[in-house]
Amino acid sequence: MEWLNVTAEHGLAGLLLASFLAATVLPGGSEAVLWGFLKIHPEQASTAIWLATLGNTAGGMTSWACGRFLPRWQGLDRLPRMHHLQRWGSPALLFAWLPLAGDALCIAAGWLRLHWLPCCLFMALGKGARYWLVAQGALAN
């Protein structure tokens, strides 16, 4: 299993990239990458959680930016799901970590012109909590 002997630096860079790509519309499982990395380098847990959160939040904000620059179509903001996002605002992005729905939330938040800073903060909180839970599971076994 020498092929699994990944240095911490290379593994952290791969984790950052995987978490960024997983937050865009590209499919990816950054949780599995985090889990595997922590099995090899458990001493790097806090750095790994921080970098995974950073990468995933940056990917989510990229989706937010894509939504921000989409043209505003009449009537689309009256869709029931858009209405809920308008009502809850940026705190709804605590759920940006959800598969598929999270990408749509990020894009819709940008399209609705929700302010970027609260969106980024709520997104990071939700994504960070998810990675912390994954890390707890990986380190417990």
Automatic annotation (TrEMBL):
Keywords, comma-separated and alphabetical: Membrane, Transmembrane, Transmembrane helix
Domain of life assignment: Bacteria
TM ranges: 48-71, 92-112
InterPro entries: DedA_domain
Name assigned to this protein: Membrane protein YqaA with SNARE-associated domain
Organism whose genome encodes this protein: Azonexus fungiphilus
